[in-house]
Amino acid sequence: MNAPLDAETFRLVVASTPLVAIDLVIDDGAGRFLLGLRKNRPAKGAWFVPGGRIYKNERLDDAFTRIAAAELGPHAIGKSRENARFLGVFEHLYEDGFGGAEASTHYVVLGYAFTVTGLDLATLPSAQHGEYRLVTRDALLADARVHDNTRRYFV
Fold first, then answer.
1. What's the pTM value of the predicted model, to 2 decimals?
2. Residue 100 pLDDT > 90, yes or no?
């Protein structure tokens, strides 16, 4: 079964175990990187790279393709884990979690990087991010609104 969990089951999982996720570090081919302003917990209100969690029994390649499509919409066409650069394994720890502050959240994240030229920010999906921007590495590192877990991909 590789589908999202219902809200109550997901709350129990978040409270009890680490989640495994994929983050996408996307450059536009001109030295700028894609960030989205998070709409949901954890990291709500912070600038973050696109990404998402892996579902149970979902192969990494399938998860990568699904997450890229959910986060990039039409810009994900032709993008696969095979043609992305693996950045490593990262830990993201948050004091709050899905649905509120009743449980902390622990992610084990696989970071991947790739280039998407011709990014049209207006066409990007809005489920997780309220707005998007492209920023240079230096601007990203200097901006206090960029989440520390995103900064770690660039230091």
1. 0.92
2. no
CA–CA dist 139, 44 (Å, integer): 20
- Cβ 73 vs Cβ 120: under 8 Å: no
Identify the H or E element spanning 90: strand 85-94
Picking from 124, 136, 141, the residue whose alpha carbon sits closest to that of residue 37 is 124
- Tell me the domain boundaries of the chain: 7-151
Percent of the chain with pLDDT over 90: 79
The dihedrals phi and psi of 140, each to the nearest 5 degrees, come to -60, -45
On whether the CB atoms of residues 98 and 43 are closer than 8 A, the answer is no
- Assign residue 123 a region (left: φ > 0; alpha: ψ between -120 and 50; beta: otherwise): alpha
Rounded to whole angstroms, the Cα distance separating 82 from 36 reads 24
Mean pLDDT of the chain: 93
Q: Which CATH architecture has domain 7-151?
A: Alpha-Beta Complex (3.90)
Give the pair of three-digit tokens for residue 99.
Answer: 């649905």
Amino acid identity, position 67: I
User: What is the tens place of the pLDDT at every residue in 19-69?
Assistant: 999 999 999 999 999 999 999 988 999 999 999 999 999 999 999 999 999
Tokens in use for 23? 């983050």
